[in-house]
Every structure is written in C-alpha cells, then in structure tokens.
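just leaving the lab so this will be short. what follows is a protein written twice so to speak, once as letters and once as structure tokens for the fold. can you read through it and tell me how you think this chain folds. anything you notice is useful, everything is just below:
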Amino acid sequence: MDQRLRPELAAYYGQERLPRYTSYPTAPHFSPAIDHAAYAEWLRVIPSKATASLYLHVPFCRAMCWYCGCHTSVARREEPIAIYESALRCEIDLIARHIGRRMSVGHIHFGGGTPTIMAPESFANLMGTIRHSFFVLPSAEIAIEIDPRTLSLAMVDALVLGGVNRASLGVQSFDPVVQRAINRVQSFDETADATRRLRRAGIAGINFDLIYGLPHQTIAACLDTVGRCVALRPDRFSVFGYAHVPAFKKYQRTIDEAALPDSLERHEQSCAIAEALRAAGYLQVGLDHFALPGDAMAVAFREGRLRRNFQGYTTDTSDALIGFGASAIGYLPQGYVQNEVPIRAYSEAIAAGRLATAKGYALNDDDRLRADIIERIMCDYGVDLGTVCARHGSAPEVMLTSAPRLRDLISDGVVELDGASLAIAEHSRFLVRSVAAAFDAHLDAAKQLHSRAV
C-alpha cells in the first residue's frame, strides 16, 4: 500500500499546525471556570456501574531530552520524587472518597517524565494505594513508560509485583548524531538489555516509541533505527513526528532549527518508517501506531473498535479516565479536567485536602457529536456521518455544511465523499489530522499552539 502524498499536498497541508486530537475540544480550550468544586460534583454523580481507567503522571527525569514536549523536570535527588509520590497517594484517596465507592478499573497508565524514576518501594506503595481505593480488574492492562537507560533490576521486580503487563520504551533514534543533537544518548545494547529483562520477568507487552523529523535526521538513519528495533520484535510501535514549539517548551530552544527537516522530508521519513514496519509484519493502526497482527490493538483496529484518548490510540472502553498528578488530564461524561501544572501548586492543593483541578471544559451536545466524528476519523480513516449523527439526534447535512474545509480536501483527492460516508484516500492517510480538523469548531483560535500536520 503506497501512502506517499503528492509533494504539493505534503507541502501545502503539511505546514498546518493542527491538534493530534487525543481529545475534543483540545486542551487549549480548557477554562478555569471548571474548578475543583465542579470536578468534585462530577465525581460524585458518576453512574454506579461505570468503569474507569487511571492515568498517573510522574513529572521527573534524570536528564532533559531537548525534543521533549511533556510536563517534566530534572530531579537529581530522591527526596522531591518521594514527596511527590506521597502526594499522589493522597490524591488517589481523596478522589476515591469523592466517588464514594471502589470503581472498577480496566486500564492503568503511568506516564511522565520517567515513571520508573521512583524508588521500587515507592512504586509498590503507590500500587497498593490504587488497589485499596479502586477495584483493579484481573484482566486490567497496567502500562508504564520507561527510559531504558535508567531501568534497574530492582525496579523490574517491583513492576512485576505491581501487576504491570505492558512497558513502553523510549527509543526515538539510534543515530549518534541525532542523539547528541537532542541530548539523549542511548545505545542499542541498553535498549535490548531492558527489553530482555522485562520479558524474562514476565512483562510480555512491549512498545517502542520512535520519532521522525528530529535535527539532522535522515531517511537512512530512520531505517537503521527501525531495523535494529524490529530485531527485538516489540508488540507495538508508536511513531511520532517531532513537534517543535520552542515558544512553549524552553528546552527545545537549544535545538538548531536549521537542522530540522522540512515538511516534505518529514513526510518521506514517516513513509519510509511505515513501509519498513509493514514489511516486517506490523499493521499500521491509525495515524502513528503499528502492531503485530495478533495484538489487541491491531484486532480492535480491524474490527472498528479502536479508541483514542490522552495516551493516543487505545483499546480502552472505560466510561471515565481519571488523571492523577501535576498536569494530569481526566475525562468524565460531563467533560474534561486538568490538574495544576506546577508541582508545587499541585502538591499544595492536595496537602490542603482539595482537588488539584486548575481548569477544564464542560461538553455540550455539539461537542459530543463532533468528538465522536473526529474520533472515528482518527481511528478508522473515515466516518459514516449518517450513523454517528443518528446517535446524537442530528443530521449529516448539518455537519457537512459546517465543514467548509472539506471542499478543498475533496477537490485535492484527499477525501472521498459518498453520500454521508467519508473516507480518506489511502495515499493521503498521513493527512488524517487535516480531515479531522474540518469538523473542529474551535480550531482557528488555537492553531498556533499545535504541531505541523506532517
């Protein structure tokens, strides 16, 4: 399957700054009008049979990678990490008391930063608090993000005891020139050793994260990295385009912008990686994931059950996503909430016995309809507007009329429209964000905050 865009389309659409649509509306539209009191009420009225997934944010690393767009900071001492872990446990207890019962949990994800920066005993305590406050289903997926350079044997043991069954290892690139340019020097042997240790301990689900569009990166370097990674046979790959937003992420200012590939070069790198992974037996899942054919994510994609949340593509079907930690975002049927971003502000709120909510967004009916449409486009490369609109008591004609951007996408051959059924042409699937954006009623006010579409 050839997914290469015509160069003029890559140049035209690739310059647009668009959301990754891990939510709709996206985080720039969150408002302080949704505060801790609103969140407390939302938690109180969660339906009794609802299930939850949990996200825990650990905003610390041993060293800063200059490409990073996450909320994290460098911690060279153990004390701040231990204090923060204590605040997390307090927040878990606080939220559970607001809910008023032990909700069933089917997914848990530890993100960062580097969650495995915690001491093994701290991680064990944290998992104990989670299991005390929530009913973690025996079938639950418990995933954690890992920096292979700092993973200890003691931490692997703690992960196994805590029930972790999926690990996402940051790789990005094995090219030494690129690694020095982004301040992340990581050998293949370190990555292979971490992978083997996790598998030997029984953690069978392994994901690798790759990035294209980095400074000094070339197609040859991308393919060399893919070849080395494929030899380790992870279940899944996440392949992201580097988002250069130095106005918002100060560490990115150390990257030489002249060394960054342009939109066409980024697209060629992305295509080369995708082709190499497909040739190695991986199925492309949505915009930026690849999975072995028997993997649960690949199966969900083939069956039209794939979902999208703040961690990207997922098989999670929970009714609520509850976020813990500084900057963590959550979702409830009523809308979105985000915690205080500064660690100190977050910790002070929790110490005062108050939810750390800083802002959020209350969904209306139009938001829910558009969120449904955008999620299906991002997950399925298309959407049956008739089916989705019927679920929300609307008409597809209303959505088509409200999406003038579609006209150009159709005339350029990016989108095929058959009645109310919309499909992205195979050669244009890298523009899935551009198609989703056609249904984003909030887009223009925040375009400058997002990464390039290609």
The first strand starts at residue 17 and ends at 18. The two ends are 19 Å apart (CA to CA). The mean pLDDT is 94.
